[in-house]
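Now for one specimen:
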Amino acid sequence: MERRAGSPALTTKRSSSAPPPLQLGATVEGRQDTRVLIPPTARAPERPPSDLIWSLAGESMGTTWSVRLVPPMGTTQEAFQAAVEEELARIIALFSPWTPASEISRFNHAPAGTWELSPDFWTLLNAALDLADDVNGAVDPTLGALVDLWGFGPPGPRDPLNPLPSAEEVEAALAVSGWRKLRLNRDARAAVQPGGMKLDFSGIAKGHAVDRVSARLTKMGATSHLVEIGGELLGRGVKPDAQPWWVEIETAPGSPAPQTVAALFDVAVATSGDWRRAFVHEDRLYPHTLDGSTGRPVDNGLAQVTVFDASAMRADALATALTVLGPYDGPELAEAMQIAAHFVERTPRGLVERMTPAFAAMMDEEEA
């Protein structure tokens, strides 16, 4: 078995010895057109806490979740299941606009004024605003009014007889949106509600939830695990056979990219795709990802963006941001920020893939 320097036990050769991916697509064992990705790692894997692998699953945040973990001795599956569900319920109570009593719903429907925020809400809001600043608003936590207007929020889909909002409605929603318009009172740990502004963490929430669940599992002694929520994944440690957590990366329908598997060892991966949540009107696709500079769904030709990062929250947010930036500015920014990103663009000649140098550096040496 050949190994990449500095990455003990992470197989770098494409072969049938690679375990099948986590239930995200068909098993790729034995296929000849499989792309293998080995993200870089700065540390050697530690021995897992036992020789067992437990699988947990459930539903939350409007999607499904799954966890595979190596448990420490003396624990039960029921305890881990309860811990994951408790963590996700806590996130919903903070950040779900579909829950009327959640903290985000209370802020979104509050009258104009300054409102104190809980420590966890304050932390995520600041992280989201920092990311918005890094990408010039390409991911923006203040677009809730636009999300609702286009039929992707709690009010539900638009009336089929009136499928598109008017220019005046878009302008009105834009007037109460924009990360630069949200003022914070740092001494009071509070945010200023100008009146009508709606926060929305849909570009960051699932990734944040993955990070939180992973941290909870680690605290309970399950230092080797794979967490997946709605397609966003994070792997920690290795399995009892010293293999990393192998997963198959979701691809856009008709993508020219080969079937791709990645070794998730202390790394997360997130994918943004225009086919996931969208509606079609007069043969045009309107995806749920919105461009805060126009107030409208993105329409730049990008079908999919996949990002690897140490944090699932950042991977989730950056996949959204690069989608908004488009097939030219997106790769340019990703390369400047040394982001491992893969792009699939719809063009007149069909789907075309692009990748950053950091992504290409992860590929099996035979493919690079």
The chain is about 25% helix and 25% strand. Helices lie at 77-95, 103-108, 119-134, 144-149, 167-175, 205-219, 312-336, 357-360. The first helix runs from residue 77 to 95.
